[in-house]
What we know:
- By secondary structure, the chain is of the alpha/beta class.
- The chain is built from 11 helices and 12 strands.
- Helix 7 (265-273) links the parallel strand 11 and strand 12 (277-278).
- One of its GO terms (molecular function) is nucleotide binding.
- Keywords: NAD, Nucleotide-binding, Oxidoreductase.
Amino acid sequence: xxxxxxxxxxxxxxxxxxxxxxxxxxxxxxxxxxxxxxxxxxxxxxxxxxxxxxxxxxxxxxxxxxxxxxxxxxxxxxxxxxxxxxxxxxxxxxxxxxxxxxxxxxxxxxxxxxxxxxxxxxxxxxxxxxxxxxxxxxxxxxxxxxxxxxxxxxxxxxxxxxxxxxxxxxxxxxxxxxxxxxxxxxxxxxxxxxxxxxxxxxxxxxxxxxxxxxxxxxxxxxxxxxxxxxxxxxxxxxxxxxxxxxxxxxxxxxxxxxxxxxxxxxxxxxxxxxxxxxxxxxxxxxxxxxxxxxxxxxxxxxxxxxxxxxxxxxxxxxxxxxxxxxxxxxxxxxxxxxxxxxxxxxxxxxxxxxxxxxxxxx
Length: 362
């Protein structure tokens, strides 16, 4: 595992198997320098189990950087449950997962991610206290996707200002790939601000609902990435910006809710070379984890959470301005900023090894 291409000095990687429930999962802790490793749990059917490990490693690193840039007292972690999980085994699987989280003793705090909902987290919460995304007491908690979507919309407003020269999203053409929790909420945010929507999802019922509700234009799931729009918003799974797909992208900017949108660094460089602005995913989609952290630590009211999410606009502006000033791609600017926050925290704990291989720039 130490030779895995996505291994980045991760502190701990746990493979979980529970025969009684049928649970098979991987929990990856990238860094706890800033606090407990916070990050969601996703449920996905991996035809190749090796891709589950790749996901856990890459997503947990992204969470370290996301939480660092968001100013949270959390490190980065992620869990993946290997599906499919039959409906009649779902409770047993998530309770067993809760037991696995509990055995980590608070080093990892879990929450919802792709394929996992509030009801699943409540099952996890029956077995461990190291979980968030459960309730809405005091207006904070529950489904984090509306907060994620709000952060993505704010980042789009920053991109509209700095790239499109627009002071609002009125009339801006946005293609949204994926209409799950984040994508659907993003469509609402954008529609309310006058954006023109093009949407696609593999679930046609979702497409019909969004088109009816927001007068969106329908696109094919296989080709929406190549729509001629102002902003492309990948909001499904990651790895969609590749060396094969980037040459066909016709948007002026890529700003989406999906994690790990860049398959590799080369894809990010290709976007930059084509003068397509890429707003780093872990910078713009931090709204959900901001809410999750507030619920877990009990630190904020809803107003406080929303105020923290609003800061995504300023941070996106900062990254874009720094990119323009230095000539470095935005994803490397953000990597450097996040790695610096983590390393500063690590230096306060002598003896902890550096974990980041983020590239430096001048």
